[in-house]
Amino acid sequence: MPLFDFQCRACGREFEALVRPGHGPACPACSSQDLEQKPSTFAVSSSERRSAIARKTTEKAAQKGAQENASRAAAEARHRNEDH
Ligand SMILES: [Zn+2]
Predict the structure, then answer these.
(1) Distance between Cα 72 and ligand 1 center (Å)
(2) What does pLDDT average to over the chain?
(3) Distance CA 8, CA 73 (A)
(4) How many structural domains is the chain composed of?
(5) What separation in Å is there between the alpha carbon of 17 and the centre of ligand 1?
(6) d(CA 40, ligand 1 centre) in Å
(7) CB atoms within 10 A of CB 62
(8) Which domain holds residue 68?
(9) What's the CA-to-centroid distance between 1 and ligand 1, angstroms?
(10) Do 55 and 84 share a structural domain?
(11) Which of 1, 6, 27, 57 fits as disulfide partner to 32, beta carbons 3.0 to 4.6 Å?
């Protein structure tokens, strides 16, 4: 039986539910049936995984760049102190 991830539009609760034909799932918190179906965690495509890895790599590069900016700023501050 297919298991899907849902997010309740009424209260924001995320939950998993089995979907049976003719029987829609309801939010366990507020019983709303106004739900957004999310892609199943069991069916994450390899391209989505790749883009997730790419995002991580970009974050790391951004952190490295920030560190380099910080050390450059510190070097400039030292330089200014030497001038005066
Ligand atoms: Zn709800």
Answers:
(1) 50
(2) 82
(3) 47
(4) 2
(5) 13
(6) 19
(7) 10
(8) 45-84
(9) 23
(10) yes
(11) 27
The span from the CA of 32 to the CA of 4, in Å, is 16
26 CA from centroid of ligand 1 (Å): 8
Calculate how far, in angstroms, residue 33's C-alpha sits from the geometric centre of ligand 1: 8
Query: Which CATH number fits the domain that encloses residue 29?
Result: 2.20.28
Q: Cα 42–48–53 angle (5° rounding)?
A: 115
Same domain, yes or no: 28 and 56: no
Instruction: Find the 71 Cα to ligand 1 centroid distance in Å.
Output: 49
**pLDDT, tens only, 3-35:** 889 999 999 999 999 888 887 899 999 999 999
pLDDT tens digits for 24-63? 899 999 999 999 998 765 555 566 667 776 777 777 778 8
Cα(9) to centroid of ligand 1, in Å? 7
Ligand 1: centre distance to CA 22 (Å): 20
Q: Are residues 84 and 50 in the same domain?
A: yes
